[in-house]
Write a structure and sequence with these properties.
heterodimer, A: alpha+beta, five-stranded antiparallel sheet, 2 helices, 5 strands, globular, B: about 230 residues, alpha/beta, Rossmann fold, six-stranded parallel sheet, 8 helices, elongated
């Protein structure tokens, strides 16, 4: 497992933004990196918040998988079901996207209820 | 995640409270775990309790396997802190760089001509005497202390408090000669070799730094090394 950076730094305030959207009455989903193997661009705990219209803040990779994660987040917003997604070069056939760096990540996607 | 959980998480963050969000990745069930919950278990699965303990300490979120499925422990610890004694030239770039690296920065200097908002915009400045300031700031295992005045009247009292604390890093600016004299004074003050070995002096990694900004880089690099590699 890779290094975890939990200190708030120059990155976006993902959870704060999620709460703000929610209080505005917008449907929101959160996606969180829960496991990494090998070299992965973002550490465990990295998150994005997805707005019901498809825009998002934060990052869960160097940009390799955000598109696919947002698609799944929108599905989670619709059906309310959490999802556990696997991304990695070895899973290229199961998912249309992978990580160029050769690592693997698992991303948990859930609707903010 | 439930909105109430998110709101509580944001309140805890505002209060600088350590907390773990535990989520069962199969059922979606979630709960917040506080350090106090680990005393006596408080209804926690023992595997989760052990992992939570380790996660608070290491500050690294992780997934742990339990009989009820994988549980993700996302740890939210308060920010790392750096206490800089001496509102001197080097403190200016160091305060900015440390803030970028995620530290909550406090500068201590009783000389009010040095510790001004003009020189340190947006930084917490304390003009108390360093031992009083350090004692009230109470450095913990997520705090670095750096003294930059090379004035024994200011640096030594700060170091005396820092060396008795859990601070993960203690560094002190000054040449080899200055540092040797400092160690002599602190030895007379009753500190032993093991305690004195905690002081990084001359401060910073040896990268040939010259300008105040470069010296700040070398100091922050050494602080990072102590944090991540425990040296």
């Amino acid at each position: 497992m890779s290094e975890q950076q939990t200190s708030p730094d120059w990155q976006e305030d993902v959870l704060g933004q999620a709460a703000e959207w929610k209080s505005d009455g917008v449907d929101v989903a959160l996606a969180t990196v829960v496991t990494t193997w090998g070299s992965s661009p973002r550490p465990v705990g990295s998150q994005i918040a997805v707005h019901g219209d498809g825009k998002f803040v934060g990052s869960v990779s160097g940009g390799c998988i955000e598109g696919a994660v947002v698609m799944e987040a929108l599905k989670a917003i619709k059906d309310g079901q959490p999802r556990l997604l696997d991304f990695g070069v070895t899973n290229e056939e199961a998912w249309e996207v992978g990580l160029a760096c050769g690592g693997k990540v698992q991303v948990y996607v859930e609707k903010l209820q | 995640m439930k909105s109430e959980t998110l709101d509580q998480l944001l309140r805890d963050r505002g209060d600088n409270t350590s907390v773990i969000l535990a989520t069962n990745l199969t059922s979606g069930e979630e709960r917040l775990i506080y350090p106090a919950d680990l005393v006596g278990g408080n209804g926690l699965n023992p595997t989760v309790a052990d992992a939570a303990q380790e996660t608070f300490r290491s500050d690294r979120s992780k997934t742990v396997e339990t009989e009820d499925g994988p549980v993700f422990l996302n740890v939210f610890n308060p920010p790392l802190r750096i206490i800089i004694v001496g509102a001197v030239h080097i403190a200016q770039p160091l305060a900015r760089m440390a803030a970028l690296a995620g530290y909550d920065v406090t500068i201590v200097d009783p000389r009010s001509a040095f510790a001004t908002d003009e020189r340190f915009p947006g930084v917490t400045l304390l003009t108390e005497w360093p031992d009083d300031a350090l004692a009230s700031l109470a450095p913990d295992a997520r705090t670095a202390v750096v003294t930059l005045t090379h004035d024994p009247k200011l640096d030594d009292p700060a170091l005396e408090v820092a060396l008795k604390s859990e601070a993960f890093y203690v560094g002190s600016l000054g040449s080899k000669k200055t540092h040797a004299a400092r160690l002599e004074r602190l030895t007379e003050a009753g500190f032993g070799e093991n305690e004195l070995n905690r002081i990084n002096g001359p401060v910073g990694l040896a990268i040939g730094a010259r300008s105040p900004s470069e010296i700040a880089v070398s100091i922050l690099a050494q602080v990072t090394q102590a944090l991540r590699q425990g040296s």
